[in-house]
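Entry 14. Two folds queued back to back today. First construct below, sequence then structure tokens.
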Amino acid sequence: MNDVKPLRSITRELIGRIGKADLLVGIPCFNNASTVAHVVAAAAKGLREHFPGSRGAIIIADGGSTLDDTRELALAEMKAREVPGVVGIYRGLPGKGSAVRMIFAAAGELEAKALALLDADLRSVRPLWIERLLGPVVKGGYEFVAPLYRRYKFDGTITNNVTYNMLRCLFGKRVRQPIGGEFAFSGRLAAELEALPIWHTDVARFGIDIWMTVNALIREVRICQTHLGVKVHDAKDPAASLEPMFRQVVGTLFALMEETEAYWTVAGRSAAIDVWGDPGDEQPEAFPIDFQRLVEHFYLSWQTLHGAWKSILRTETFDELEACIDTGRDIFLISTDLWARILFEFAAAYHHRPAAKQQVIEVLSPLYFARVASFIRRVGEKSNDEAEAVVEEQARIFEIRKPYLLDLWNAKPGEKTATAP
């Protein structure tokens, strides 16, 4: 799988007909017929309006859409907008990461100075997003650009409860949306990432966003965040659709912790990073979330998984989790402090149990559902801005708890670590 080339011969030939491009917008997609033309139109207009002196192009990296006309609609829109572009099917494992690899490779063929990624299910993308993503690279000299969105308080549950907290705690940089979907890169950084031998792993599936962010952090390239306003995409209820994504994102995160141990174990308290653009004042629309399904999933999982959880968690942590169960469905709450310890102890178990890494990830997801339910319970009556303040409070608690993570991580097998402070 390591030897699979990211570009098919026909795709390379089509890219060759474009020649060279200064700027590239890449759109990973899979059965996105309802939205892909809108994303292509915004990208084409953004390139034309905001970078009139540069040659821009669009690359569609499709996962083999067969349930709809995603590729045909994307190609028709590019022709209608008269923008150079290629629609191709990526090679490799099924997932966004393989699509991103294809886009990186296309950027290399085109010798692009900068490239941006846009998810194909976006409903709120505007031409201004192209300036906000590519502008920091072209005009500001940044090499990695992460998004800043206004999102509904129940959106982005993996980000709000796992990745933002963990990456801020680990690497000391406040990248608010480390798996946000929309990113930009210098051509140099894209080529460097594409050359790494990781495309046969879960990075090729859902793990790509966090992998790209962590790699930018450890390479100490110039990073900024850019205001994109409200993000509206095909909403995903965590109780119904996010378990595979959670497992792959967290599996990638824990694997990256092992690979980057020399960086994060010495990183200090977090610092803010540069921000590009104006946030605007538009507010996101609410969408329903099945709170009861989250709760029931957790309680049902307790019946079959509590033994596995007890084998992973420290006695004090497990006892506190069991006390939460005993309070009953109507009021149970996993606090941020307890959740931080749970994640840290699972990360340490992943680290110290090389033969059981996959099992550690699999039994963690019901606890994630419980934490999401707890977050919803806490912010249910709050505004989006008030909920954002809760997210920031959570991240600070994770930072304060980092010494406990280090203690767990550095313990020798069988060695008793200090009691959780």
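Second construct, same run, same settings:
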Amino acid sequence: MAMDSMLISESAGNRLRKEQAARKYAEAVRLYADTRLSLQEIAKRCGVTAGGLQAYLRRHHRELILARYDLLAEGVDPRAVCIQPVKGPTPAAYLKYKDAVEACGSTEYIEYSISQVARMFGVDATALNNFMKVHYAHIPLWRKNERIRRGLDTKASRGSSTVEQYARAVELYRTSEYTIPEVAELCGVSPGGLCQHLRFYHKDIIAAREQQRMKSGKRKRGERTRNGRRHEPGPDTERKYAEAVALYRDTAMTLKDIVERTGVSPEGLRSHLHFWHMDLVLERAGIDGEVGEGVDLRRARKRMKTVAAKYAGAIESLRDNPRPLARVAAEYGFNPETFRDYVRKHEPELAGSRGMTVGANGHRVARRCVEKYAEAVRLYAATAEPLKSIAARLGLVYNSVGGYVRRHCPDAIRSHEALVKQQQGKNKQSE
């Protein structure tokens, strides 16, 4: 019943959040569907963030995005269409230059220069030329050869004056793992200019770098990802969780206590730790080495740092002053069964010295009883003296030692009975 009520409560909470988001973005969604305003303009007009609006549209109104960029084909599931491809132009850029690119690739407009075509379709000439060089490199080449063949291109061929300017940057980019902005900063050149230079004149280097990054497997912190950036948290994120991570690493405080002290959100801290500091999570859980994907850490964990700190005082006290585990648990306010299970699992020597052992008959018996009655059992098995006499001589309770011998020492009983019969036989002979 408790689990059912929890699921119902969680479902109601999700439904409430969806309704609130729908009301929040209702006007923005209407403007996005009915106008050609940009996402930033709509967000500013409606008082919402552009990132939040974009995420809401991608999740709940994907068909509007596809319709705006003419990517929605009849009979195709909107969820199966890739809005942002890994390579290639963005939907906005494709829609902006689509007609101009088609005109540049057609013989109908071959008599016009790229600048004239750009003005006809209302786009920037340099931007159009760069767009085609990056995404449709065959069109400028075909167009130049065709205009020369028809005698339309009378300008002399111009070489690139930037070869020497970018030579050092190109070599550094080819032989290192630096990104284009990092190389540009090291070499003192423009990042945009270096990017265009590489795309226009060194496509082989760009292709080799892409193939190298595509082969990368599981992302590791500090390594380059497929987009060229280092896989590591941002500076703001590092500063936000720095104190919490230090407490998690250096103390045995629980996650709840750390959150209360540092003021960060519990889910945010948990996500940050599992994503960027998995080694600390495994160390705290007592797990050695790496764990595979899908492993339940709650089942795989061994001796947790927080639990070890919780029982440390009781364990030390038990070592200094041996006594029953139940009494120690009561003194420190622990559940006796939980504390006993922890001692057996993580302190086997201590548990062995104070816990249970297997008797001669195969039954479990308290080790302290074995030690307490050992001398009485030895005398009982080696002599014909009655057990009651032995108990009185050793200062033991007869009922207790008698019950212990009957339950756990069958060999001692048989040996004693044999000695008693032998003694009785000698007595008869003497009479």
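Quick look at the second one. The two ends are 81 Å apart (CA to CA). Residues 354 and 368 are 7 Å apart (CA to CA).
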